[in-house]
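Re: weekly structure request thread

Next one in the queue (319 aa):
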Amino acid sequence: MRCLDSFNKFIEKWMALVTPACLLIGVLFADSLSHFLFIVPYVFAFMTFCGSVGSRFGDLKRVFQHPLPLLVSLFVIHFVIPLLANAAGTLLFPGHPYTVTGMVLEFVVPSAVVSSMWVSIYRGSAPFTLSIILLDTLFAPFLVPLSLHYFVGSNVQVDTAAMMQELALMVAVPAILAMALNQASGGTLKQTLSPKLAPFGKIALMIVVSVNSSKVAPFIKHMNGFLFAVTGAMLGIAALGYALGWVCAVLLKRKRNLIVSMTFGCGMRNISAGAVIAAAYFPAEVMFPVMIGTLFQQVLAAFYAQLLVKFYGTGEEAA
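Done, posted below.
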């Protein structure tokens, strides 16, 4: 158990490098890993369960008592940034509907579970972050397909019903199950089971990223000017997501802990979920903009974390 705990802490410390490394592994061993694509939805469901087992329905209730920051965050996550992604893709890459679809898909998926790790390290509001993740997770089966249909449905065929079903099985069902079990245990499951599952959740994340990356291997191995331009556009939009969360928190005159939570909540996306959906329902061209986000999401999180410390301190003085 001590070995697993050390492994979990190591992965958390080096998360900014782990996901790009997994992407590289997927590209280098694409021929072998591509045979395991069928297991990804099941591994992802387990990952969702691990990430949600420390949550309770009461966490939502407390945040709902002051819902404005939550509503603003969800509006930024599911409308403002996807709208910007769609506009940028349409403007920069006309005639490439699948590239635009991948750009939009990357930014309509739920807020990343791993954002809670960054919020915990930099002393943000854990209940607020959990609320964003849980609501995003629970509504993902509806929001993701409908958002895709709204933004790119006229150019790309979206199997809304099948996508809803897959997201429900991968995201909503395991999240509800984990929360219900923790609620039934009176919250003790968070102390007993959550630490034990944490390293296995990290392993699941590494498997999902590595296996899904095998599908974009042909693009990574043959990078050209167009793909570099797509990468630059994705980097810019992703960086803007963090900034918008930060700005909205400041405009709402929130304290440091909410600024931290809204920054990471609006900036970080569940790329693995987007990759699973892209692999299951779209051509390989859609996968590239989604998976390329693994190269810089954690790096951007580390960059904004340092900016937050510079402007607001570590938060230890308020602990």
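Residues 120 and 126 are 7 Å apart (CA to CA). The chain has one domain: 13-310.
Next request, please.
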